[in-house]
């Protein structure tokens, strides 16, 4: 498969999930699939850290895993060599980055087949170094009244690529990075599966930097 489907897959979309941490986003996808809220199958989970709790969640759900600690590779290129080799061993339609803290190189074969979610409204509070609690701390310190999350197609730059979905949450006067993160994460759990669903239904079109979500009945 290359690029975005032009028509519905009419079968579960096959996902590879790349993570570096505890795997809460992975768990959300596992739950959505189990509750039949998303027609998908997770065919591979790749972890870039040896202590990534997401591997335990994947093994508990009997999902194939690959543990590829970034520190064991002498370069980003060799690290990506290993990732791409694992992806080629599995049937993958779409790659989902779920708190993956290392660069993933598309290498010309995964354009519009890699999604990322960022816990802020891109282009604000995004780019290299903006991840996890750092994002929420920066939002609070800025005095912003709104934050949220962004689902976008990934490319070879941090937090770049056409935006698929965005949503907002209020920043409260007494927020801490933890309380704001909890509110944003609930929104992430809604929007990320929705973006994957739109992709699998063939409802996404690229127009320059804009992603257009089409009405399937009108196509």
Can you walk through the features of this model?
The structure is a single chain. With 219 residues, the protein is an alpha/beta fold. It has 2 domains: 11-110, 3-Layer(aba) Sandwich (Rossmann fold), CATH 3.40.50.170; 118-152 and 163-219, Rossmann fold (3-Layer(aba) Sandwich), CATH 3.40.50.170. Helices cover 30% and strands 24% of the residues. The protein contains 5 helices and 9 strands, in the order βαβαβαββαββαββ. It has helices at residues 24-34, 54-60, 76-88, 133-142, 177-200; strands at 13-19, 40-47, 65-67, 94-98, 114-118, 146-153, 163-170, 204-207, 210-213. The strands form 2 sheets. The chain has a 7-stranded mixed sheet with strand order 3-2-1-4-5-6-7, with helices on both faces. It has a two-stranded antiparallel sheet with strand order 8-9. The longest helix has 24 residues, at 177-200. The model has no long low-confidence stretch (mean pLDDT 95).
Please supply descriptive tags for the structure shown above:
219 residues, alpha/beta, Rossmann fold, 2 domains, 7-stranded mixed β-sheet, two-stranded antiparallel sheet, 5 helices, 24% strand, globular
Shape: globular
Strand adjacency order, main sheet? 3-2-1-4-5-6-7
Number of strands: 9
Distance between the termini: 21 Å
Summarize the structure.
It is built from five helices and nine strands. With 219 residues, the protein is of the alpha/beta class.
